[in-house]
Amino acid sequence: MSRTRRSLLFPLVALLLSAPLPAHAQEPPFRDPDLPRASRIADLLGRLTLDEQVSLLHQYQPAIPRLGIGAFKTGTEALHGVAWLGEATVFPQAVGLAGTWNPELVRRVGAVTGREARGFHALDPAFNGLNLWAPVVNPLRDPRWGRNEEGYSEDPHLTGVIATAFGHGVQGDHPDYLQAAPTLKHYAAYNVEDDRITVDSIVPPRILKDYDEAAFRPAIEADAATGVMASYNLLNGRPTHVNHDLDDVVRSWTDEDLMIVGDAGGASNVAGAQRYYPDEVEGNAAAIRAGLDSFTEDNRDSAPTTTSIKAAIDRGLITVADVEDAARHVLSVRFRLGEFDPAGRNPYAATTPAVIDAPEHRQLARRAAAEQVVLLRNDDHTLPLSTADTKRVAVVGQLADTLYEDWYSGTMPYRITPVRALAERAAVTSSEGVDRIRLKDLATGRYVTASTAAAGAPLTATEATPGDASGLDVFDWGEGTVTLRAAANGRTVSLGDGRSLVNNAVQPNGWFVQQQFELVAQADGSVVLEYAGNDVTQSWFGANRYVVVGADGRLVLGAASPEHATKFGREVVRRSVDSAVEAARGADAAVVVVGSMPFINGREDDDRETTALPAGQRAVIDAVRAANPNTIVVLESGYPYSGDWDTADLPAILWTSHAGQETGHGIADVLFGDHNPSARLTQTWYRSDADLPDMLRYDISKSGHTYQYFTGKPLYPFGHGLSYTSFRYSRLAVDRPVVHASGEVGIRVDVTNTGDRAGAEVVQLYSQQKKSRVAQPVKRLRAFDRVELRPGETKTVSFTVPASDLSFWDVTREKRVVETAPHEFAVGSLRRAVSVLGETIPPRDLRRTTPAQNFDDYSGVTLVDTTRERGTAVASTAPGQWISFADVALGRSARSVAARVANPDGPTTVEVRLGGPAGRLVGTLAVPTTADEHSWTEVSSPLRGAAGRQDVYLVFTGKARIDNLTVEGSS
To answer: What span is annotated as the signal peptide, if there is one (predicted)?
Structure first.
């Protein structure tokens, strides 16, 4: 419901509520569950003071004792199980859940997550909130994104289906009450962590509509989410926290109330790092005007936010009605959660902490862990392993006997590692396949030694003779980064108090991940130890990032350069490949488990520089393969790997996400065939980092990102995944050769299990528009179905595709359009043609004022804000950049062109050319200097010889901004 419609409705509701209450009524109307929700909210708002209404706009909403209202907190993390509140069921990472291509399974995972959130809520209602900040639906445009593990897919349709399933599960199936309230993250165009607060995502209108928004819209339309979170970045020059699309676009997708929340510190960034408004009062006011309802600021201290909001009212920047509107959205979610209803009315309110980590939840976690494993390769039927023939299994690699949590993971109540799970089935030999080294201070001849105490202690270089306590295990995470684990107590070395190195961490952890180091080789053969934690870029860190040995023998950060650091001799006690080969030699099968550490190989605030597997891990794979021909590689990560896996001499390769407490069982169940793999990749696996364009290129049609526009040969394509059985597609048919734009096409295909095992096939339907006014995707997923088949069984899978699903955003008229065009539908290698009768986009009519952002093509330009409040314009950053408008109807003679321009950088010109950026010059717009980038002025130029149907180019000779243009002339 729009703001305007709401403003008309609620005075009527208030009038109805002013009628006298029956004499027997004991509770105020907002406590009456039989009244319409809008009436109840209006009644409660009418009872709140302005200060109380404002208090609802912060993440931590205080209790209102006089009305018997308790405290409420927005935001419990729950991407793959409830996080940060204690031990809970931990499911596979989101990218793994999506890899099941099984919405029903994901719905069940969401239901358990919502149920356990209720269990935690019963423990502490004020802090353990029922507004869950999940799922993440940003499409996985680039696999180097540090938060790739949090999302579902590079495809918006698959993302929308999985998000809808998870959200419905979280909410529960009661017609009136929510089990918990899911919030979609992060709106919008958010896929970069480096400088994420100030980075500007430049997204042309068609990509914004057809790609980024398309991932968010399905769950909102299906009432599978109760709101969205604004993202940190700017979008086309404007911070998303003050982007009116929150209110104008997102809320237009549903008639249900949505609660729009800010990301942590996101609203204060508007006047802070983003410098978009001069102070927080103006920034917060702009956020409320744009549709933000809940501010996630200053942790539990709501005073700065509430004070600034009240100041904004006093300064006339927002009205009391604006505050009421935001408070109404917040209260709508609280009412749907049943907070104000009598005891016994809401069935979810009876949930107790006993549901947390329930036995049936563990079973579901194991099923999910197995079902998300993708069989990438299986030469000569290497898998599944036979129990009869596989008596001894070697399990090696950095991830063989450990499970890692990620930043948004819950706390695992137990850990089934690959070693532990496979030991249930066979005799196991194992090795982590890491170097064990000693470091010797070359200046003193003393060895670095660690404490044997469980809590660890500062490392010292005081021992003349090395012992077991001198051993350091080196884990290679790529990009030069290693972690060091002390053999003395099995703890990882961290940066401790006083900049000393301490062996105290169970595993790398924390926001700055202070367990990261680099062993930097020197010309004389020595090494220096460099600290590489995420906080090295902080100004308060200081310049000293290299380790020195102090006078007391302690290892501390004390040098600003390698030249002033302590030089160490690096003595290898045990080589990684030697220990791995020793474990693998003679085994019936060798399972090499390698991959990522979620706190190190990219995560929130930290993108990856490469998708290649670390060299040390690859060396272990090669050595084990040489020692044991029956080598299976398990890649465990939250993102795709590049490399030469398809040409390397490896019989079988599996991929799994960090799949939670049951990761080991999931892997073992697949390896031994208890589960026949059916998972499919939700992202393109590129052959090389060189296949990836600049991460800041959000226009996937120009950059070639994702399977939709990538024209190279991938390592593994989107949707890839093998099975232990085989399937054949036949009899692909469409129910009509021609479909109208208002109609739909039925598609069916027979799928036969041609193998000797029962299995599930994910049937994927793609389409391609063969002719169009615009650049169309190479192909696009339209539907999918997961079908279970017994050996020899055939089933017919049917799809219905509305022709409206084939629409795209037409920039020439700012609306969705179904073009008249031939389309090809494909399932596997089978294809069928369908003619779609829609519209033929007419020649562009620039006589109507045309927003410059609605160009057809461009080179070099960027998109910027027209005003701080609304609008998007085009800006050039260097001479020679251009925008073009294709197939423009100029008539018999176009006389002139006018444009709205801004230009704080000095006078310049914009050339009007026909046919190309170097085509015939027909006019020149003189752009004067303006006061600032938001000071717009009208300029015009006569046109000479501009007639007929032409491609019109605007070529910039310097920096300038254009908001819109209009051509005048004969028709």
So the answer is: 1-25
Instruction: Assess whether 107 and 171 both reside in one domain.
Output: yes
Domain of 763: which CATH number? Answer: 2.60.40.10
What does the alpha-carbon distance between residue 811 and residue 872 come to, in Å, rounded to a whole number? 13
Q: In what order do the strands lie in the sheet with 631-636?
A: 374-378, 652-656, 631-636, 589-595, 392-396, 427-431
pLDDT in tens, 409-449: 999 999 999 999 999 999 999 999 999 999 999 999 999 99
Could you please report the per-residue DSSP string of 873-940? EEEE-STT-EEEEEEEE--S-EEEEEEEEE-TT--EEEEEEESSTTSEEEEEEEE---SSTT--EEEE
Render the burial of 205-223: b for 16+ CB within 10 Å, e for the rest: bbbbbbbbbbbbbbbbebe
Please indicate, yes or no, if residue 717 is contained in any of the structural domains: no
- For residue 62, whether the previous peptide bond is cis, meaning omega lies within 30 degrees of 0, is no
User: Quick one: 875 and 956 in the same domain?
Assistant: yes
- CATH code for the domain of 99: 3.20.20.300
Sheet of 131-133: strands edge to edge? 60-61, 72-77, 131-133, 181-182
Residue that the structure tokens 């995470």 belong to:
477
List, in sequence order, every residue forming a beta bridge with 64; answer none if it has no partner. Answer: 69
The verdict on whether omega for the bond into residue 889 sits within 30 degrees of 0, i.e. cis, is no
Judged on CB neighbours under 10 Å (0-12, 13-18, 19+), 587 is: buried
Residues 476 and 512 in one domain: yes
**CA atoms of 101 and 165, how far apart (whole Å):** 11
Residue 720 located in a structural domain:
no
**Same domain flag for 422 and 493:** no
Exposure pattern of 939-953 as b/e (b: 16+ CB <10 Å)? bebebeebbeebbbb
Is 873 among the domain residues? yes
To the question of pTM greater than 0.85 for the whole model, the response is yes
Strands 794-802 and 759-769: unpaired
- Looking at residue 210, what DSSP letter applies? I
Total tally of structural domains belonging to the chain? 5
Final residue in a domain of this structure, among 782, 810, 837: 837
Residues 99 and 241 in one domain: yes
Q: What is the pLDDT of residue 8?
A: 43
Residue 753: per-residue pLDDT: 98
User: The CATH number of the domain where 857 resides is what?
Assistant: 2.60.120.260
Q: Are residues 426 and 446 in the same domain?
A: no
CATH number for 549: 2.80.10.50
In which element (H, E) is residue 199 found? none
Tokens of 597: 């550490």
Give the residue among 901, 880, 898, 909 at the shortest CA–CA distance from 943: 898
At which residue do the structure tokens 């639906």 appear?
137
Beta strands in 170-298 (DSSP E): 181-182, 184-187, 200-201, 228-230, 234-235, 238-239
Q: Domain containing 900: what range? A: 850-969
Cα–Cα distance, 845 to 966 (Å, whole number): 9
**Strand pairing of 857-859 and 862-865?**
unpaired
DSSP symbols for 51-85: HHHHHTTBSEEPPBGGGTB--EEEEEE-BTB--SS
In a shared domain, residues 376 and 312? no
Q: What percent of the chain has pLDDT over 90?
A: 95
Give the angle subtended at the CA of 447 by the CAs of 445 and 449, to the nearest 5°: 160
Q: Tell me whether residue 580 is in a domain.
A: no
Which H or E run contains 278?
Answer: none
Decide: residue 837, CB within 10 A, 0-12 exposed, 13-18 middle, 19+ buried.
middle
8 A C-beta contact, residue 653 and residue 685:
no
- The whole-angstrom separation of Cα 55 and Cα 306 is 6
- The pair of structure tokens assigned to 683 is 């992202």
Does position 881 have pLDDT exceeding 90, yes or no? Answer: yes
User: Which residues make beta-bridge pairs with 69?
Assistant: 64
Same domain? 551 vs 589: no
